[in-house]
Amino acid sequence: MSQSIPAVSQSSRKLHFSVYGKNNSKVSDGMSTQYPVVDHEFDAVVVGAGGAGLRAAFGLSEAGFNTACVTKLFPTRSHTVAAQGGINAALGNMEGDDWRWHFYDTVKGSDWLGDQDAIHYMTEQAPHAVVELENFGMPFSRTEDGKIYQRAFGGQSLKFGKGGQAHRCCCVADRTGHSLLHTLYGRSLRYDTSYFVEYFALDLLMEDGECKGVIALCMEDGSIHRFRSKNTVIATGGYGRTYFSCTSAHTSTGDGNAMVTRAGLPCQDLEFVQFHPTGIYGAGCLITEGCRGEGGILINSEGERFMERYAPNAKDLASRDVVSRSITIEIREGRGCGPEKDHAYLQLHHLPPQQLATRLPGISETAMIFAGVDVTKEPIPVLPTVHYNMGGIPTNYRGQVITHTTEEGDKVVPGLFACGEAACASVHGANRLGANSLLDLVVFGRACAHTIADICTPGEKLSPLKPNAGEESVANLDKLRFADGNMRTSEIRVNMQKTMQNHAAVFRTGKVLKEGCDKMDAVYQTLDDIKTFDRGIVWNTDLVETLELQNLMLNAVQTINSAEQRQESRGAHSREDFKDRMDELDYAKPLAGQVRKPIEEHWRKHTLSTVDPKTGKVTLKYRPVIDNSLDAEDCAAIPPAIRSY
Amino acid sequence: MQKLITQVSTQLACCCYIRTEAESRSASFKYLRCESGTCIILGHWLLSSQQEQSHQDSAVTRKKDTMLSVLVAKRLVSGVCPKSLRPAVAELVTTRGYKGEAPDDSRGDIIEIPLPPWTEKDGETMDIKRRRLLFQSRKRGMLENCILLSLFAKQYLNTMNEPQLRQYDRLINEPSNDWDIYYWATEAQPVPDVYAGEIMDLLKEFTKNKDQEQRLDAPNLEYLDKGSQ
Q: Which residues form the Fumarate reductase/succinate dehydrogenase flavoprotein-like C-terminal domain (chain A) (predicted)?
């Protein structure tokens, strides 16, 4: 059954967009401007096959929904595989534990920007989620008595911060991420989940404010596929690649955030970007904190151990954000190392080579492979490196994507869900605790599946879709494929990355941020002048990287503009010119007699940003933080306080 | 100790549990996996034990009393299972130091949750294969592999002949854990026989970075642009 649409002359190249039935999809790799489209119908479509996407796909398939999972990477190659930490859950295997203490730690860690209902949901569900994973076959590391082994991790305490270090992190040796992916992927196949691997999702199919599916490019043969569904789940991960130096793989390009932005919906809290103090300069590969634990020291261009000045007691082992800030200050004051004086050195050659080999086995290899440095003779160049994005697509605690108006408050976008790093539930608020991310993936992946199972039944009839839905996405694809301007993809990308790195890094000031916003705007405009070189349609990496660049740009402009507007320091967003948190009450002083500031006058609120894709102009709105937990009697909400450890 | 084995299931992909009800808050599970890949269910230890079919492949036995220590159980099980039944699975024990304090990794999920086997793609021209392998070299699970494999692809992919392309295809697409490829390339772990060969040697040599060049990032794609050369 095929219908052809008259040629659309959106550009000077006559674009022909025709829709076929399900079985015709072969396209030759010629200079064809024909884009045959294949339509699919599913009960649910999940975009992204990392930890969150796989958990959602598995949950949906298990509940009987005909589910498709559209992913640009093979599932076990998603960025989740890089996770070597673990999953936090208050199982109480190492000492007595209570999920309410985990709740407190997470709320405090988020610097009171996290939504407490979502945090309540996540920490309460954590033990069930871990036990469920165990049931699915995930081989957690065990103690001598066979219970799941739990270890300590930063920011986790007992008894609401008063009982010392908690041991809550469950892991599978050092391959928790891989094990999670392997387990979930394997199990989901038994329930007949349909995987569309190496399909690049281009855009959401929105009609009347409702999400009706996704349109994607099949890399293998260049065909276009429309996945029609009543329920779309976005689990596309973060966008570390907007920065010059990040620990993320080259696949972290914020595709989901961009799809949502192009659909006219807001993204939340994008200015909150977490930095890890020691990533290899340039490459960005993580150098573990364990190096400094074993005696490694940070030095500047004068050979000075500068951490002694910034943290006289803890020195190089001060908390991550203190170390990141110190390194940045040294570089800005002209004591950076290297020809461009733009990084610091991590010195290990004063340690005995034997110790390096046994206690830090991977470091010597990584330093040699990525920095060409022999750690027994020279120091490693390091820089604070982007590590995680707390912000993303705003959702409620059930995983449904929301928009917000002052009059009506939060409103659900029908048919659209999000989970994982791509979403902002918001459980991490202004700062994420270690080992909470993998937990976030499984709990909210599961939540999306449960919510969909609650509101829909498998096999429901789909509402009609406009015959030419998704046409603009294909027109954009075609335009990029034949783009012949003056600036190459890689040039524009590096301009964006350097602007973000120089203007929206660890330490931010109004003047530098404003310059950054203007520069970023200029870089955004150069997208119109882009030049690609690969004109094919089959396995066109150049085209995919250019699409990813478009997506990254949308994330970058929102991040830097949101950061420029937020005039306070909270969590990972640290402003030199506004060093304190600005809440509705001054929590450093006694509360009696203080007057509550209205929401326009304080900063304990979520940022909602939208972009006009044609001009790159960013519009910002704000939304209040949810301060009540799901059940006040079961778990009291934590009122804000000054955050100190 | 009562009679140990009541049932042996010979399905390869199967997990067995012994659920204890010692903890009130959450059930704690113990695995009892025989190294041979067959399952043994320690059953009927005590008076009231029920068997429940929870998954299509496994059975849960409820115990009302104390837990059996896993070490004792392991000893019993390996005593029962003849070594000849152990499958020839690639090296399970990691020699790499762990970044933390958790005990050893049983690699259970890899044995019991087999993923569909990787198969070579048919009917692909060499040119298309190279384009596919380029994409698959540049888009990996973690940064280290992204940089390493895209630099390797820049250097070698366009000059590989057909058997070499097929070796490379298998190397980067079959292993389930991307870290494994990194450990083999950096010689932190021994390479399994199926992946050893010309391409693996080339990768190991390349990784050593004997010229000590600074590998700041994955290369931009424009080296492929014939028009600009």
A: 494-645
